[in-house]
Amino acid sequence: MSRVYNFSAGPSMLPEEVLKKAQEEMLEYGTSGMSVMEMSHRSKDFDDIIKSAEKLVRELMNVPDNYKVMFLQGGGSTQFAMVPMNLGIKCKAADYLITGQWAKKAAAEAEKYVKVNKVASSADKTFSYIPKPDAGAYSSKDDVDYCYICYNNTIYGTRFTELPKTEATLVADISSCAMSEVIDVSKFGLLFAGAQKNLGPAGVVLVIAREDLLGDPQPGTPTMLTYKTHADAESLYNTPPTYGIYIFKLVLEWIKSKGGIAELQKINEAKAKLLYDYLDSSKLFKGTVAKEDRSLMNVPFVTGSDELDAKFVKEAKEAGLVNLKGHRTVGGMRASIYNAMPVEGVEALIEFMKKFEQENA
Ligand SMILES: *Cc1c(COP(=O)(O)O)cnc(C)c1O
Fold it and tell me: Packing angle between helix 44-61 and helix 242-257, nearest 10 degrees?
């Protein structure tokens, strides 16, 4: 067996311990005589799985009691509609910060359901920084139902290091940074994350929402797109993505075994620092993002030559460092170094970059 270091932005690496545990339990989960995949979502065994997943989310993220934890489907992208349909009730308006493709898509979807105020955008510099508007730039909390941000911009490699100066209910897409750093849930009305970046396999979406926001949605909202449906049924209104939730539970146990999110954050900061320090010292490679806004999870970089970029991606792959090609809208390279990427993987990447730099100077 030869596993590579996989720098994919998503679906992405999972901890090897998690995959091994899933392998051990593949044919027979506990004493059930069957795989989790074959189990009724109403069975005692599955109920234990989903309950302990919820308990671990609450424990690891320190989720206050007045928040619901839901395991949904439809990817992060379905949340782009569910948020305005369910939260855009009183004012039918919301503030959006446009910090990349995912925020742009979320705003475009929201425009179907609410009036969208684009408070600020970093499109002028290819989303290479996080705009930091003054408090006065935001709508009053009486005029909007919420203010929306994409906390970590997977494609461009930026992240918020301080929260927007809004008084409105904050909503954040944390798809690519969930559980990679400590986030104070109580500062948000709603958080969501597609699992395939940092939490598990594709097919599960984690939603954490303050209970008082989960009333009746806009008229015409389908039952399946109503948060209240899933909150009331504890994510068992219909068949949830059972196997994905099971793997997510194993990832949560792994995070706990590592000492929790604060411990992983320290490791993630150290990993990112290794890579950024090298980029700052390199004469060939350079980072593309404003230093103060650099993501801990997604690190884009370029050589300045399309040919050299392509050569780098190809040779890295031959060396077992895969999926380093940048997003199709940005070019260059991107190394996604989520929780499951060990420090050894980052070190191997830097060694390879040094060698490549020498050979191509
Ligand atoms: C990947 C991603 C999405 C889209 O997720 P899907 O599950 O593919 O719909 C949304 N937001 C962010 C920040 C992402 O990284």
Answer: 40
What distance, in Å, lies between the first and last C-alpha atoms of the chain?
35
Contact partners, residue 31, CB within 8 Å, separation at least 6: none
Dist CA 208 CA 231 (whole Å): 10
- For residue 1, what pLDDT band results from cuts at 50, 70 and 90? low
User: Which domains occur in the chain, in start order?
Assistant: 27-257 (3.40.640.10), 260-360 (3.90.1150.10)
pLDDT in tens, 147-164: 999 999 999 999 999 999
pTM: 0.98
Question: How remote is the CA of residue 30 from the centroid of ligand 1, in Å?
Answer: 33
User: Residue 20: which residues within 8 A CB-CB, separation 6 or more?
Assistant: none
CA distance 217 to 224: 11
From ligand 1's centre to the CA of 194, what distance in Å? 6
Q: How far is the CA of 176 from the centre of ligand 1 (A)?
A: 8
SS3 label, residue 18: helix
Asked if residues 330 and 155 have their Cβ atoms less than 8 Å apart, the reply is yes
Q: What is the maximum span of the chain, computed from C-alpha positions, in angstroms?
A: 62
When pLDDT is cut at 50, 70 and 90, the band that residue 361 belongs to is: confident
Pocket of ligand 1 (CB under 6 A): 10, 75-77, 102, 150, 154, 173, 175-176, 194, 197
Could you give the angle at the alpha carbon of 156 between the alpha carbons of 96 and 269, nearest 5°? Answer: 105
Pairing of strands 190-194, 5-6: unpaired
Ligand 1 pocket test, pick from 105, 127, 176 with the greatest ligand atom count within 8 Å of Cβ, gives: 176
According to DSSP, residue 220 is labeled T
Look at ligand 1, atom 10, and give the residue with the nearest C-alpha.
76
Residues tagged active-site? 102, 173, 197
Let me know: does 155 contact 101? Beta carbons within 8 Å. yes
Q: In this structure, which residue's CA is closest to atom 8 in ligand 1?
A: 75
Q: Can you point out the beta strands (E) in the chain?
A: 5-6, 67-72, 93-98, 115-121, 146-150, 152-153, 158-159, 170-173, 190-194, 205-210, 286-287, 298-302, 321-322, 333-336
* Atom nearest to 10 CA in ligand 1: 1
- Token code pair at residue 55: 């308990």
